[in-house]
Amino acid sequence: MKILAIETSCDEAAASVVANGEEILSNIVATQVEFHKKYGGIVPEIASRKHIEVINPIIAEALEKANIGFKDLDAVAVTYGPGLVGSLIVGLCAAKAIAYSLSIPLIGINHLEAHIYANFLNSKSQVPNFPFICLLVSGGHTMLILVKDHGEYEVIGRTRDDAAGEAFDKVARFLKLGYPGGPIIDKLAKEGNPDAIKFTRPMLARRSSKSGGGLEQGYDFSFSGIKTAVINYVTRDAGCTTKDIVASFQQAVVDVLVTKAIRAAKEYKCKTIALGGGVAANSRLREELKERGQKQGQEVVIPPHSLCTDNAAMVGCAAYYKLRNNQTSNFDLQAVASLKL
Ligand code: KG4
Ligand code: ZN
User: What is residue 205's predicted lDDT score, i.e. its pLDDT?
Assistant: First the structure.
């Protein structure tokens, strides 16, 4: 079962061929970082125009690398939301045209679901068993999801303000470190002291009358306060180096994410925690979730770096499980900017 998958929800245009939902035959990602860098963030109009330029070449490259032709495809999968509508439409049009002309199924995929499915592209021994907790951390979303079965999700917590990746990007922008901020902070933080400054850990634990004065264990997140704490610290010029500031900021974010993910796994009686989304590429988060999770008897599943940030292989993997259940899409499938899981 060979699926051509297309992903253009944001500033990356990606195409991949995935066989049987597990074997990546090709995985092409055309990044646009160079074009958005000077604006310090993604410019939607530029993103969609660049997608138009590269979409056909990357599809051709994905087929060539997979050593197959259009006629060997069994289905076409495409991200239809959430994301930038102008960007999504480019991938959707390409996917519809290919599926229609070949008379093969079209499978629309939710981008968030695709990030979860990056975990099913791991080697067989490392695929998460149901039910599991997925910590999904990207530039636009931060969620704790109880994954009960294929396609069965319960979102148990989400950010109330900034997403984790957004906080990384905004802090990097404030410190004039460049764009995108996540990977830059990750690298710089390796040379800093994560305990230099004790930044706030919002919503980690609080006393609640509901629990008779005990600790209330909510699963929502808030990251804008940590970002403001960094800005206030720098404005006061309290003396630490930039390396120490970013290491301490990263530690605060990671601490909140890991503590809540482990708590959720315990409360929902899941033996496994999986990770997904661009921030899952963060080395401190990967290390700490593994270390602290395993100490608590949890199995921790983490996709390789290249499958954490936006890519089309994860879309092809999610589509395989949809196709197995005959969950295909109609040709009137529309791009949706904000789409829930
Ligand atoms: O999943 P993704 O590629 O796109 C969205 O769906 O949003 O995530 C992009 C986000 C950006 O905010 C970026 O700064 C962050 O992931 N990111 C990282 C790292 N690599 C990417 N954040 C922290 N550490 C990293 N190594
Ligand atoms: Zn993403």
Answer: 72
pLDDT digits (tens, 9 = 90+) for 21-34: 999 999 999 999 99
Q: For the domain covering 2-116+309-324, report its CATH number.
A: 3.30.420.40
The answer as to CATH 3.30.70.1790 being correct for domain 128-302 is no
Kind and range of the H or E element at 226? helix 224-236
CA-based diameter of the chain, in Å? 64
Among the bound ligands, the one closest to the CA of 257: 1
Ligand 1 centroid, distance to 140 Cα (angstroms): 9
**CA dihedral for 105, 108, 111, 114, sign (positive or negative):** negative
Domain with CATH 3.30.420.40 in the chain: 2-116+309-324, 128-302
pLDDT band at 125 (very low <50, low <70, confident <90, very high): confident
For residue 76, count CB atoms less than 10 angstroms from its CB and return exposed for 0-12, middle for 13-18, buried for 19 or more. buried
Residue 90 has pLDDT above 60, yes or no: yes
State the distance from the centre of ligand 1 to the C-alpha of 326, rounded, in angstroms: 32
State whether residue 148 is helix, strand or coil.
Answer: strand
Residues with CB under 5 A from ligand 2 (ion): 138, 310
- What's the pTM? 0.95
| Averaged pLDDT score across all residues of the chain | 95
* Sign of the torsion angle spanned by Cα atoms 262, 263, 264, 270: positive
The number of CA neighbours under 13 Å toward the Cβ of 193 is 6
Give residue 139 CA to ligand 1 midpoint distance, Å: 5
* pLDDT tier, 210 (very low <50, low <70, confident <90, very high otherwise): low
With a pLDDT cut of 70, the percent of the chain lying above it is 96
- DSSP letter at 268 equals T
Give residue 284's pLDDT: 98
Say which residues have a Cβ less than 8 Å from residue 224's Cβ, sequence separation at least 6: 161, 162, 167
